[in-house]
Amino acid sequence: MSVLDRLRLDGKVALVTGGGSGLGQAIALAMADAGADIAVSGRRLEPLQETQRIVEAKGRRCLLTQADVTDSAQVNRMVAEVIAGLGRLDILVNNAGGGGAGAGKTMTEFTDEDWHEGINANLTSAFFCSRAVVNHFAERGSGRVINISSGQGYRGGRNNFMYAVAKGGMIQLTKTYAMTFARNGIRSTCIAPGWFPHFMDPDQPSSRLELQAAGRIGLTYEIGPLAVFLASEAADYMSGETVLIDGGAIAGGILPATIVPVAEG
Ligand SMILES: NC(=O)c1ccc[n+]([C@@H]2O[C@H](COP(=O)([O-])OP(=O)(O)OC[C@H]3O[C@@H](n4cnc5c(N)ncnc54)[C@H](OP(=O)(O)O)[C@@H]3O)[C@@H](O)[C@H]2O)c1
């Protein structure tokens, strides 16, 4: 078997939460290119339909399931729908999330609700999804979980408590799940992306780019191959690991302008 054959996901089914947009869509499309059938979830139908249209154009099956991943009942129903609809589940990508909760506030302005919203969207959701798939994975003696953290999960983020703390938690969730289920044939890995602002034109100059080691933003399609690798047989001896994909930003110790630490007081 060639090395490229080991990267194929033929016959596998991958569920990507938040798979209707951004990095989640890019991961779903890359896994479809590698041969997997895809399930995508999110709260809004329209973005999921767009991913479905592109996946099906690639000749793969694509199941949509609307679910709020902060609600464990909806998560359990989502996983049951995928297994019933596509016959199995091999790969879970815990991608849904984002930095919205409490945006623009300082620590003393954060409400209890802001805290819970940020942690629930970015960490509790991944725990719920990982728990919902574990019996199916253990019964089959095989399963892959890929969590999406962030550079802020490594280094923290100024005024970004819920997001950075939750994303740091994703790294530990990855390790704990990996250790707990390693002998059940279940692998858990994590991707920590740097700056992938898919709303920006990569060719437009921006002062923030100067703060990136690579001098450019991450391009959405660059996330997919890493996710395919981590899901594939080629990565079968990797578990518990977090892989940064940030153009050298963390290595360079250079932070995006909005979250760079400043001396205060
Ligand atoms: N882009 C970056 O620069 C970057 C950097 C580091 C890490 N990340 C992480 O990468 C992941 C994807 O980010 P993105 O930039 O691609 O953002 P995005 O385009 O806003 O995508 C987020 C997706 O998550 C879904 N989602 C959010 N909350 C949800 C909930 N409660 N239940 C179900 N689905 C939910 C959204 O769908 P609905 O709104 O329809 O529910 C959306 O499809 C996030 O975890 C983010 O923190 C991104």
Mind explaining what this structure looks like?
The chain is of the alpha/beta class and 265 residues long. The chain has a single domain (3-253), classed as Rossmann fold. The chain has helices at residues 3-6, 22-33, 45-57, 72-86, 112-140, 151-155, 161-181, 224-231, 249-252, and strands at 13-17, 37-42, 62-66, 91-94, 143-148, 186-193, 242-245. Helix 8 links the parallel strand 6 and strand 7. Helix 2 crosses helix 8, helix 4 packs parallel to helix 5 (112-140) and helix 5 packs parallel to helix 7. The radius of gyration is 18 Å and the shape is globular. Residues 261-265 have low confidence and may be disordered. The structure holds NADP nicotinamide-adenine-dinucleotide phosphate (NAP). NADP nicotinamide-adenine-dinucleotide phosphate (NAP) binds at residues 17-18, 20-24, 42-44, 47, 68-70, 95-98, 121, 148, 150, 193, 195-197.
What is the fold's blueprint, element by element?
Layout: H1 3-6, E1 13-17, H2 22-33, E2 37-42, H3 45-57, E3 62-66, H4 72-86, E4 91-94, H5 112-140, E5 143-148, H6 151-155, H7 161-181, E6 186-193, H8 224-231, E7 242-245, H9 249-252
The protein binds NADP nicotinamide-adenine-dinucleotide phosphate.
